[in-house]
From TrEMBL:
PANTHER family, per database record: PALMITOYL-PROTEIN THIOESTERASE 1 (PTHR11247:SF8), PALMITOYL-PROTEIN THIOESTERASE/DOLICHYLDIPHOSPHATASE 1 (PTHR11247)
Keyword Translocase tagged: no
Gene Ontology MF: a single term: thiolester hydrolase activity
Name the UniProt record assigns to this protein: Palmitoyl-protein thioesterase 1
Keywords for the protein's UniProt record, in alphabetical order: Hydrolase
Pfam families given in the database record: Palm_thioest (PF02089)
Organism for this UniProt entry: Brassica cretica
Keyword Hydrolase: yes
Length: 202
């Protein structure tokens, strides 16, 4: 997430050709990682969701910057200080963010099939819940961020520059084989050819 912010926000940042994201919560995360059904966990989850967009939480708890509760979009847009800006979700769009992000030559988005940390796991591909509901998960191509091209994701995808990669394992548990296949080729100026994997629509 910080790497993407560097690309979008920084005026004097070095040029970035390829951006590889390993389990990044690009569309946000809707809840804290599951901790159980005990009263302590239930109370903690309720407290965090109630106060997550307060000034104190935004200043002192880093994950609060990308917690996006689908049933409180107004609170999210008003109080969350990081992700709404990063994803160009605010009413006034910043064309510079889109221009910079869409200048990438390669965007590799790696999702973990059994991720229990990011909710939903599809956020690693920019997929997410629709506003106001937890019932369904939209694939990236059906989100407003994509269809209205807020940060240039659709532009990159239509140009064949986005790789949607699905690997087994829980959050950040990537095998050496998958690292060699999906990450290492992009550490040089001339990445080897890689298949354009499309997200599975459910």
């Amino acid at each position: 997430m910080i790497g993407r912010a560097l690309i979008e926000f920084c005026d004097d940042a070095p040029p970035v050709k390829s951006f590889v994201s390993v389990g990044g919560p690009h569309a946000g995360t809707a809840s804290i990682p599951f901790c159980g059904v005990t009263w302590i966990c239930i109370m903690l989850d309720s407290m965090i969701k109630t106060e997550i967009y307060s000034d104190y939480m935004q200043e002192h708890l880093a994950p609060s910057g990308f917690l996006k509760i689908p049933t409180d979009i107004a609170g999210y847009l008003e109080g969350c200080r990081f992700l709404p800006k990063l994803n160009n979700e605010l009413p006034v769009k910043n064309s510079t963010y889109k221009e910079r992000f869409s200048s990438l030559e390669n965007l590799v988005l790696i999702m973990f099939e059994h991720d229990t940390i990011l909710i939903p796991k599809e956020t690693s591909w920019f997929g997410y819940y629709p506003d106001g509901s937890f019932k369904t998960i939209l694939p990236p191509q059906e989100t407003k961020l994509y269809t209205e091209d807020w940060i240039g994701l659709r532009t990159l995808d239509e140009a064949g520059k986005v790789m949607f990669v699905n690997v087994s394992g829980n959050h950040l548990q990537i095998s050496h084989e998958d690292m060699k296949k999906h990450i290492v080729p992009y550490l040089s100026d001339k990445p080897s050819s890689s298949s354009h994997l499309q997200p599975i629509k459910k």
